[in-house]
Amino acid sequence: MKEELKAGRDTLRKLWDSGLSGSALLSRHSEVVDSCLARLFTTVAGPDDGVALVATGGYGRGELYPFSDIDLLFLHEGRIQQGLLEKLVGAILYPLWDSGLEVGHSVRTVKECIADCKKDFHLQTSLLDSRLVAGSQKAMDRLSESYRKKFIEGRRKEFFEKITASTQERHKKYGGHSFQLEPDIKEGRGGFRDIQTMRWTAKVLFGFTNIRDMEISGLISTDERSRLEESSEALVRIRNRLHYLSGRKNDQLYYEHQESIAHALGYKDSPGQFAVESFMQQLYRNLQSIKVSTDLFFEYTSEKISRNKPSVKDRSIDEDLEIFNGRIRLADPSRIPEKPALLMSLFSRAAESGLPIHYRTRQAIADNLLLIDDRFRNSRQNARYFLNALKINVNKEDLLTLLLETGLLVRYIPEFGKIESLAQHDIYHTNTVDRHLLQTVSETTALSQEYPEIFTDITSHNVLYLAALLHDIGKGSGKEHSAEGAEIARGVGFRLGLAEQEVDDLDFLIRNHLFMAHTAQRRDLEDETLISRFAEHIGNSNMLNMLYLLSIADAKATGPASWSEWKGTLLQELFLKTAIFFDHKGKAKPDLSSAVQWMRDKVRSLIDPSEVQNVDALPDEYLTSFTPEEIKIHLKMREQLKDHKIVSAPADRGSYWSILVVSTDKTGLLAKICGTLTLNNLRVLAAKINTWPDGTVVDQIDVRPDFNTSFIEQDWNKLNTDLAKAVDNRLGLSHRLADRLNPLHGARKGAKRSRHQAKVVTDNKTSDQYTIIEIHADDQPALLYNITRTLADFELNISRAMISTRLEQLVDVFYLQTPDKKKIENSETLDEIKKALLYTVSP
């Protein structure tokens, strides 16, 4: 039997590789197992022995995936020959286990099945898919009859309430949307479980056993049935491939598998889009299609089965719109062809009322999308409806999602179609591009409440909201997305009736939507020249206000890794300093001396009088980068340098650790610190590097452990010892790191090819005192050590540095001077440094 199962499964694998459809593979796999189990059954028992072998779950549906569990119920009548049941169970299970198959089994009487179903709703639903494989038809019929009486007849509303609650709980567990970074295509939103739940509900409530019957009865439309079948078959192919690739049961499309699956399914790279991105885009479209269809089905069913008393009374809004069952709907959808503007006015009214849109109306919108033509798009009235819905809706995310899912948004702004469900294959962006843009609009509304004074001062909220909606619309084009998006947005802006100045402002915001965040995170905000040049580029306070809110909304909508309190503080600092610049009517150097003097006085009040002279020498930019209490600690640690060449103090910040390192400046110091941290299994996330005029170096370095080590478990004494040895040239970092990291580096490097081209940017314009070098590269072990060691080869002094590791990508900015405290003016030297760094960071 083991050999027969293996041969059958091997044959199916070859047929699959040769082009067998996904659904055919499932049914034929079920048949292979059926045949084996039926013959095993007959070696022990017959049809009249009072025991039935019943398939349940996916196997019961005839949908057995390559490595899915085989769920079996040994159903018996309670009075069977002694020892027969145990012998039968062993005869069935042992060959399956010997074949390496996962089996879920239970042994129950009909009475026990019913009793257990009352306590376990999962078991109750799994029996809806049960079928007889071998044995007693009588026992199977008794189970079916008892099940019908106990759980269907007179219990339909109860079943619906339970299935609804179960579905909501599942969505909460696996994610409430269908565009997860690593979607679970079985349990997640828009996955197989949603389809199965719809089928179970249709079977219990209406007596339909398949989607075709649901179409014939009018429960779903022909288009919905077609989309469900097409999307379901696409998911079947992916899940089959995922099982074969993993060599085990696996229903979650993990990030590291996505590229392999894409190529296995025939996707190819194209200009502006990797194969894996095309694959994920189509997957998200299929998941969304299933999600939309099943949502409509359950809303329809809810209205028919369990209509609760709505919080809002049914009433007419006007001759075209009404409130019914707590939802806004079209009074007569047949009027849409003669009044196409209803499609957009509906969303405007829904925004004003805060009410959801009725499922029948959503279907009517989808059925009338062809009415949205150029005349519709160029209508000023429709533009007002659209912009109104964009700006004022309380439940903005839900409403915008409906705009997208009904197809209306893409039909109204066709340019949006290119980025619909567009995936960005990195673990930094947790949303597809279209969903990110909708989330940015929602975040903008939230910011209007958080920063009311800034929001009120903005001259055109239409511009701000359109910038939020369109700022990434240039992605997927193969061109620089900010510039491409700005050009696209100009056309959209004019079509929506914006004035020429508003369109110019929209263009500027989208073209520069990353400029403020990059400046805040990658440049020295204590440099007054930088603030002056930034202000000159922005132009005026109105543009500053809009760009500030857009920058925050964009970061928050990107994902949790993109936003932090630290990044918010940097953006706020840049915003406030630029606002001061505008308030001083363009003075290049706003007077910040009073704030600096207050800091000096505050620090003096905290330290011993004998140390006051040390405070006077501290740079202004350093004083405004830390609190007085932190500076006091720095001064105390500096005193320890009389007995030590380097001192450090770690602190537990919860999600990361912060290490304060104080030493005396010397060429290669930062390289030695970074190398020692790597040697101690610590990965640098961010760093602030400061050098005092007397050569004291104060580095605040944020790290995380490479492994799941707790703060208490980390050997901080070893780190301090290694730092001292490294600074004293008694620790061979290069060979130690090479020995430790070469196998790891090889494994990481072979895991997947780089998606980010390494880049080194030199900047001799922003600062009057320093050459700024900005490095972008895929993160890898010891990379920061290698970068700083390369800079040390040129004997460059690192005055300030901003280190940022954003999941897979490192962005480091260094403020550099030559040994004689000058900028790197020689172009050949600068070019040589750039080449050396590119060699260092390239994989």
Could you please describe the fold and organization of this structure?
With 843 residues, the chain is α+β, with helices and mostly antiparallel strands. The protein has five domains: 2-151, Beta Polymerase, domain 2 (2-Layer Sandwich), CATH 3.30.460.10; 163-305, Up-down Bundle (Four Helix Bundle (Hemerythrin (Met), subunit A)); 309-412, no CATH class; 434-587; 644-841, Biosynthetic Threonine Deaminase, domain 3 (3-Layer(aba) Sandwich), CATH 3.40.1020. The protein has 37 helices and 15 strands. Helix 12 packs across helix 13.
Structural category:
alpha+beta
Sum up the overall morphology in one term: globular
User: What is the CATH-assigned architecture of the largest domain?
Assistant: 3-Layer(aba) Sandwich
Strand order, biggest sheet?
Answer: 8-9-11-10-14-15-13-12
Portion of residues in helices?
Answer: 55-70%
What is the number of independent domains?
Answer: 5
In percent terms, what proportion of residues is strand? Answer: 5-15%
Q: How far apart, in Å, are the first and last alpha carbons?
A: 50 Å
Unreliable spans are: 744-753
